[in-house]
């Protein structure tokens, strides 16, 4: 049996199969084409990993061959949240990325991005076919440059080992508002008061110096007048 394709929603999955004879399955099937040595069927309603059986006649003996159809749930919705969105430089914040439903978790990866830079990468494990929630969180300290680029989350489901391809889905980007740390109000008040007191002190020193200089000049002038009067009296007596 040769599966030639598989696509669609898991609740109504369609598989194209080529069998050398007839196809045995409890699922809904439709014969699409038929030749002497093969038949092509469309099988509907596959919701989990399913084994299908093809039968054929060889040398008048009926034989069977089986094949497994693997079901996957691609990461259709990737949700990312940055908390808080307003943060001060040096303060912590958290980035959370969540995929509500994905399967299988084997080789499923969530990558947190800042612009094109990879910040955090988590690869999950688990081969169950039931859809599960996948989530990762990352703690980061705010930097000034964090405001320059947006954050985003990329989900990647690698199906190459199962004959498929890599499916990637990216979340909506989200920015971060950065604030510079503010000085403590009490410290600002202390600085202002000290500055005013220092200014008053310097002003008082300058005023004292000026008044001292003026008083010295007046005192010297008085001494000169008294000395001239004495000289005058001596000259008169002589």
Secondary-structure blueprint of this entry?
Layout (H helix, E strand, L loop, with lengths): L1 E6 L5 E7 L2 E3 L3 E7 L4 E8 L3 E9 L2 E9 L9 E5 L2 E3 L3 E11 L5 E7 L2 E7 L8 E10 L9 E8 L7 E5 L6 E3 L5 H53 L1
Brief rundown of the structure:
With 238 residues, the protein is α+β, with helices and mostly antiparallel strands. It has one helix at residues 185-237, and strands spanning 2-7, 13-19, 22-24, 28-34, 39-46, 50-58, 61-69, 79-83, 86-88, 92-102, 108-114, 117-123, 132-141, 151-158, 166-170, 177-179. Strand 6 (50-58) and strand 7 form a beta hairpin.
What features would you describe in this structure?
With 238 residues, the protein is of the alpha+beta class. The protein has 1 helix and 16 strands. The strands form 5 sheets. Strands 1-2-5-4 form a 4-stranded antiparallel sheet, with no helix packed on it. A 4-stranded antiparallel sheet has the order 12-11-14-15, with no helix packed on it. A 3-stranded antiparallel sheet has the order 3-6-7, with no helix packed on it. Strand 14 and strand 15 form a beta hairpin.
């Amino acid at each position: 049996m040769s599966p030639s394709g598989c696509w669609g929603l898991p609740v109504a999955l369609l598989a194209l199969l080529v069998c050398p004879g007839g196809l045995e399955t409890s699922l809904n099937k439709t014969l699409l084409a038929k030749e002497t040595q093969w038949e092509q069927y469309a099988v509907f309603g596959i919701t989990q990993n399913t084994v299908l059986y093809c039968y054929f006649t060889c040398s008048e003996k009926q034989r069977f061959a089986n094949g497994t159809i693997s079901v996957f749930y691609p990461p259709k919705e990737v949700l990312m949240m940055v908390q808080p969105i307003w943060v001060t430089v040096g303060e912590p914040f958290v980035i959370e990325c969540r995929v509500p439903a994905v399967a299988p978790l084997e080789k499923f990866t969530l990558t947190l991005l800042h612009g094109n830079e990879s910040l955090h990468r988590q690869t999950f494990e688990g081969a169950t076919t039931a859809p599960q929630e996948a989530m990762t969180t990352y703690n980061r300290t705010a930097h000034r440059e964090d405001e320059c680029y947006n954050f985003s989350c990329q989900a990647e489901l690698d199906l190459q080992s199962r004959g498929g391809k890599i499916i990637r889905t990216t979340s909506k980007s989200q920015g971060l508002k950065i604030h510079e740390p503010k000085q403590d109000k009490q410290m600002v008040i202390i600085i202002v008061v000290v500055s005013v007191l220092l200014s008053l002190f310097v002003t008082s020193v300058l005023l004292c110096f000026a008044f001292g200089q003026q008083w010295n000049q007046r005192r010297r002038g008085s001494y000169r007048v008294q000395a001239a009067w004495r000289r005058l009296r001596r000259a008169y007596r002589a």
